[in-house]
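call fold(seq) -> tokens
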Amino acid sequence: MAIRVLVVDDSSFFRRRLAEIIAADPEMVVAGTANNGREAIEKAAELKPDVITMDVEMPVMDGIQAVREILKVQRTPILMFSSLTHNGAKATLDALEAGATDFLPKKFEDIARDKADAIDLLRQRIKAVARRRSIVKTPSAPLAAPAAPARPVPPPIARTPASRAELLRTVERLDSVESHERPFKVSGKSYRLVAIGTSTGGPVALQTIITALPANFPLPVLLVQHMPAAFTGAFAARLNTLAKIEVKEAADGDVLRPGVAYLAPGGKQMLLEGSDTHCKIRIKEDDSPRITFKPSVDITFGSAAKVFQDKVLAIVLTGMGADGRDGARLLKQFGSKIWAQDEASSVVYGMPQAVTAAGLTDVEVSLADVASKMQAEVGHG
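ret:
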């Protein structure tokens, strides 16, 4: 069944162009169009599309408020289009915080060097976020709590004065059994670095993790998020205002310090040099056509492997594609630990799946548990 897309933009030219690109793909169809946020809310309720593409800046109602209003009644994946400016970056991050699934630059030349590649990436991104709809419930009514895993049925308890006490003991026994069915075991390894890589759905995932870490987190943290150069500074600044640890956009020559998270700048590669006791960040331009992502999780992970060898906890979060798999393989060969986000909590189960399918994952973890398990694993929790 074709993916039904609602196209929202105040530019008639962009609406028409985007509709043409979508309609030319046999797996997608344009369900309708809207020229402002208010109309988008009405069309979303009427058409119930599988995906909405949404401009950030529009008259009558902007895309951020439209996202909030739409997601109050239906959990439709929303792909934002934004200009690569400081204001555009801030607005896009606001939209993601409001619940938008992902974003893309509005100009095709900012997506890829070749227009055909940009169109292909756009179609892939729409399809990727559409798949998320199948595992997200629509809150048209209050969401019911997930059904509890089946428990062994205890034998009938005799109705005696002691039955209540025995019932409590039985419940406690069963609760104890269930809570230890899939325990998280701290490995006992010694670490000097945490490295996290992500793409689609990453900004919200990183915010969830980083804001949950204590101010005295004992290790430096590298963050690699597929993001344009105009966005990474604004994103690092936002995380820094929300987090207890320091967060900064990585700069060439930065010396790694405990309790500081370094976000790789967009459009460049973040590497490491030195030793595991005194390590510097190197930010380098990369014009190689063989490297799709700038920054690349593979490159940063691979560089971390050479410096820190077996002392890295590497975590691959939600994202489209397989960036991080090759870097994780190198880390694994040196003896470092690899964690991957689970499918249920991933916006797009691409990057974590690639690592897990390659047999590299030591621990598969839900997004909500990453921060607490991370602290326990590195000796702070």
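Residues 134-182 have pLDDT under 50 and may be disordered.
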